[in-house]
Amino acid sequence: MPVTSETIGLNWGLTTQIIAHGENLLIFSDALYEVTPNGESEKKADYSTGTIAAAILNDFLYAVDKSGTFSKIRLKDWFIEPLEEFFTEAKKIKALVAHKDYLIVFSDKIWEVYPDGRSCEMDNEDWSTTKSVAILDNYAYVLKTSGEIFKLNLDDYTHKRLSYDFGVANTLVAYKDYIYVFGDNLYEMNPANGKHWIGQEDDWSNTLAAVSTSTNFYAIHSGSDGNLWKLDVVE
Fold this sequence. Notes:
- This protein is mostly beta strands and 235 residues long.
- The chain is 0% helix and 54% strand.
- The protein has one domain (3-233): 6 Propeller (Neuraminidase), CATH 2.120.10.
- The relative contact order is 0.17.
């Protein structure tokens, strides 16, 4: 299905992470901003320490900075609590997602990390080349630097390779019933078998970060303009 795109913002070139907060976006740039679907932005917190991963769990935003320190940000008032001793493997984190009542951390291994600080290693294979992770139903779709995409069952952490065709891709998102991969084109991928086709014939390999909500998905380009794009699928 073809994908439409429109620019809704500029000057987001310093972005390191973008996550969904309802239908709005939370963008980690020179500070933490909340952005509406039409591109209006509001600064929420002075948090600009180079966020490498972030996820919302319950009423808190968990973020990891480039030093490997977790912070817990309370969403009702944006109070920031550094968690100095929270998950000692944080310096190795490549991606972070929320699932059920815990966080899933992708580093050199896969870990479940709970709000009280407990952690459990779930898979001891090497996941240190993870570039991006998207959740669809009860599966995680993992893009590695090799261009491979793996499908990971979140019940037992068994996994299989779906594709190895995305060597220039930087990120992926789950939207509606498909996985969208930002590479030399914007690809739509069937999550069942890895078959994929071009959703938009344009170069998206300079995408810094991307995320989906229930009504759209979004991407930010690198470069001086730092365009924020809103995308949708033509049914």
